[in-house]
Amino acid sequence: MRMQEGKRLSLNVSQLIQKARLDVDAGQEAAIARRLESMPETCRRTYLRAMQGKSLSAAVKAFCMECVSWDRGEVARCTAPACPLYPYRPFGRALAAGRKARAAPETDT
User: Fold this and answer.
1) Which end of the chain is less crowded, N or C, counting CB atoms within 10 A of the terminal residue's CB?
2) Other CB atoms within 10 Å distance of the CB of residue 48
3) 57 to each of 46, 82, 90, 92, 95, how far by Cα in Å?
4) Which letter, b or e, does each residue of 50-85 get, where b requires 16 or more Cβ atoms within 10 Å of its Cβ?
5) Taking a C-beta distance cutoff of 8 angstroms, is the pair 39, 68 a contact?
6) pLDDT block averages, 10 residues each, the chain of length 109
7) CA atoms lying within 13 Å on the CB side of residue 85
């Protein structure tokens, strides 16, 4: 049963790569397939958009997600301020906005 599940997963990954119409050679396609198999399904679409080279924001999001083992919450709590992508990280703005709102003094009217 395990072998069949593995074959099915590989087939799905191959289909995803073909559907994304990536312009890559066989070696890069194999590397992309390995990476897709290791990530949660919920992250695959963003990763493939990034690999198409058409979305800089998807590339930053995919890089940050991979850096923190595909945990969205960890991207928002990033502890690498020296990273060149730190100012552009996804999900961080919402967290920062929440902090600013809590820090703002309340006024009575």
Assistant:
1) C
2) 19
3) 9, 19, 8, 13, 18
4) bbeeeeeebbbbbbbbebbebeeeebbebeeeeeee
5) no
6) 45 73 81 89 90 90 93 89 89 57 56
7) 18
